[in-house]
Amino acid sequence: MKSSVQLVLVDIDGTLYGPEGVPECAWNAARRAKAAGLHLSICTGRPGRGFALHYAKELDPEGLHIFESGAVVVSGLGEVVRASTLPPVAYRRLLGLSRAYGIPFEVYTAAGGFFRESTHPDLLFHENMLGLSAQQKNLGEISDGVVRVQYVWRPSPAWQAVREEIVRMPEIELHEATSPGMPGVVFSSVTAAGVSKRASAEWVAMQLGLSLSHCAMVGDGENDLELIQAVALGIAMGNAPDKVKRAAQRVVGTVEACGLEQALDIILSELVLH
Questions:
Q1: In the chain, what are the domain boundaries?
Q2: What is the pLDDT of residues 223-238, one digit of tens each?
Q3: Which of 39, 140, 252, 265 could form a disulfide with 259 if both were Cys (CB 3.0 to 4.6 A apart)?
Q4: Which fold has domain 88-192?
């Protein structure tokens, strides 16, 4: 009997992308997986533009790819096919918290906008990592179409105060992640309530006539944990926290040790052997 996995969901930071970028072994493995008939989808907190969109097109140009922590689904051609926006009242409150506590803040819109009003060094470095240039403007002038905001922070009492306010807001979801490209920095994204990698993965699978029981997820962060637990085969990268590794069915190497190649080869071996 064949393995039930037909769709593989792949995180970017810490899974596809590591301290030295994307290793060639990952692309080689992706090509083998595609040739074997697997569907591949990016599943990330990053926006579906810049380097992330390039990665999606390289991974599977015919696929559907999940960005903005599940708020946006983009085709391999770069077309937005699904978007969930933040309530305007919630957006204004989140912006107010950033301003009041001085936490660097980014705004992403369904139309592809990327905005900031600060020139904080972490925001500028993040733009380079994304391969995108944000537009600097008064963020209070953005009234609708916001799919996600992101606090880019380093540990501080100010962030803890902001986080306590955020988790009390029922109309939103908080997603937190890190990247090997920016050690010591945490990215806390906020989307509308009900938006998540898992919810969008279910939608993408449904477009292919599948369910999560036909999916594998390869990830490294706590924001991947829910999906790793929900799919048929959850695989944690070697750089994942222990909590994520314990929840996964398989653990592979780090990005630089070709962990994604190992994960895809595990899936392919089960397709061949069962």
A1: 7-83+195-273, 88-192
A2: 999 999 999 999 999 9
A3: 252
A4: 3.30.1240
Rounded CA-CA distance 46/248 in Å is 23
Helix (H) or strand (E) holding 48: none
Q: How far is residue 176's CA from residue 188's CA, in Å, rounded to a whole number?
A: 4
Place of tokens 């989140």: 94
The mean pLDDT value for 184-197 works out to: 96
Which residue, among 272, 267, 273, has the nearest Cα to 40 in the 3D structure?
A: 267
Tokens (6 digits) for 119:
């020139």
Architecture, CATH, for domain 7-83+195-273: 3-Layer(aba) Sandwich (3.40)
**pLDDT at residue 249 in the model:** 96
**What mean pLDDT comes out for the span 13-26?**
95
DSSP 176: E
Place of tokens 């009997």: 1
- pTM for this structure? 0.88
C-alpha–C-alpha distance, residues 271 and 3, integer Å: 5
Q: Band of the pLDDT at 272, cuts 50, 70, 90?
A: low
Exposure on the CB side of residue 256, measured as CA atoms within 13 A = 7
